[in-house]
Amino acid sequence: MNALLICSGGFDSVTLAYRLAADNNLGALLTFDYGQRHKKEIDAARVCAKQLGVPHIMMDISHIGAQLTGSALTDDIDVPYGHYSEQNMKLTVVPNRNAIMLTIAFGVAASRDLNAVALAVHGGDHFIYPDCRPDFIRLFSEMQNQALDGVAEVGLFAPYVNTDKTEIARDAARFKVPIADTWSCYEGGELHCGRCGTCVERIEAMTLANIVDPTPYQDPDYWKAAVAKVKAKVTEKVNS
């Protein structure tokens, strides 16, 4: 496999970059500027490409992102705090984001004679993001087989789609990912906030994987209350 990895610069995609590189399966990184407020992740993707010695392709689709309104990631809307399983996290959905990025990525991969597009979506994304679910990945791959029929053979590699972020954290340790050089927080401040969904999930995953998290957070303990709240709701639902 010689893969083009869609790399945001976040914990998940950078971990997949190191996993692919360890097996000499990483051809290049592709990063999108879609007008996201947390642009620090783009810098993290650039650092990742330099560390791994692979080409870094930057794609400016901010003019497209400007039309995908209603998300806290692109609009002047407060980023919601809490666990990803909370309904308010739907404010972080950018409609069709992965579908748009993947479509572009397959074209770029075909043009550069790369035979796979890699994506680090995982099971924790399923509740909120429809274009991170296994059925979407399967059907999108089938669609691209038709779109590139007779032009190029490009597969879709999404190894975490049926697992959770804890497994990604274990891979981060296994492949010696420089975790502090990744950026996940949706707030895009000087430090990770520790309260938005992606921060909560990041801290929780590394805790469950028994990995020391070198990331400084503004609120390093908030995640505990967020996770406890979700567990309490699940218990209440089971007992009702």
TrEMBL record:
Pathway: Purine metabolism; 7-cyano-7-deazaguanine biosynthesis. ATP binds at C7, S8, G9, G10, F11, D12, S13, V14, T15, L16, A17. The lineage of its organism: Bacteria, Pseudomonadati, Pseudomonadota, Gammaproteobacteria, Aeromonadales. It comes from the Bacteria. It holds the Pfam family QueC. Zn(2+) binds at C185, C193, C196, C199. Belongs to the QueC family. Transmembrane segments: none annotated. The keyword Thylakoid does not apply. Its EC number is 6.3.4.20. The keyword Zinc applies. Its cofactor is Zn(2+). It catalyses: 7-carboxy-7-carbaguanine + NH4(+) + 2 ATP = 7-cyano-7-carbaguanine + 2 AMP + 2 diphosphate + 2 H(+). This is 7-cyano-7-deazaguanine synthase. Catalyzes the ATP-dependent conversion of 7-carboxy-7-deazaguanine (CDG) to 7-cyano-7-deazaguanine (preQ(0)). Binds 1 zinc ion per subunit. Keywords: ATP-binding, Ligase, Metal-binding, Nucleotide-binding, Queuosine biosynthesis, Zinc.
